[in-house]
Design goal:
With 349 residues, the protein is of the alpha+beta class. Helix content is 46%, strand content 24%. The two termini are 44 Å apart.
Length: 349
Amino acid sequence: MEGEEEDVRTSTSYGTKTVWQRFKVVAAGPLMNYALALALFIIIAFSFGVYGSRIDYIAENSNEYKAGMRTGDKIISVNGEKAYIWEDIFYEIVNPDNTYYTVEYQRDGQIRQAKINNNYRKVVGIATDIVDGKATTTVSPSEVTSPAYKAGIKDGDKVVSVNDVPVATWEELTSQVENTPDGKPVKVTVDRSGELIDFSIEPQTQISVKFNTKLEKSFITAISSSAYKTVYYIELMFKTISRLVTGKLGSDALGGPVMVISMVGEAAESGILSLLNLAAFISINLGFMNLLPIPALDGSKLVFLIVEAVRGKAIPIEKEGYIHFIGFVVLIGFMIFITYKDILRLFRI
């Protein structure tokens, strides 16, 4: 914009506007990323529906069933937090800090309560390939930090046996993984282009939710679920940054342009719903990253405007431009590094 990076003083230039006017202009871009994500989530909710809080299926071997919950029960709250949609329920239950959760649910107009121990399952970190709406034993690593990825499992590998027991369905595959004795690795045999390859994979223990809820298409659930997802992913960005700073996450958890292209391709193969969800997630990522107080990003420009408001005068535009230039060089270097990591990951080097 005129007057943003040079000292131009006209009635229409950026530099002659008030601090508040410039603040709104700079913040508008990242906020529109959030608005786009919210709009996409709303489109998804109205087009495909939203999983609400009424139980549609519950496994008879689950702790929930043993505690008395049944199909048709409406979940009111989990751990004291009101539950309107599936995400409200799911993210409270899978909180790794808890070994149990308390639930309040309604049946025939009566409110009931239960304290339920978490269900656990063993996983090796693979995702199934969906064909004609059915899960198959053709798999891919669920993420680059998964045990399966580290062991060497690749996209398109077909699992033929687990612990030397032949498997023909996804259900048989997951059942054999869960039945692996504690303390022992899972032996996974895959067919890769006609060659049988064995992998020894250390399983992870994961909280399992053994019930699901009914699909709804009401106006309230559509709006509430869309707002919830937007806020949730913003909070997830804060948690991710915190884990990166504290070293709980390594650089392998980061992805650049190469990974994004790969993710878009996979989402496109899964259908329009996955593609819209990914578009919303990327938009939230862009908005969040752009608001970080890093020179050259909008977040740092907002910091300069706050400093100007406190000082009563602006920092010289030449000095501000120099700081942004240094930040730009650092960001480009970081992007090159992440792209390099993406390429190594792509070729498993």
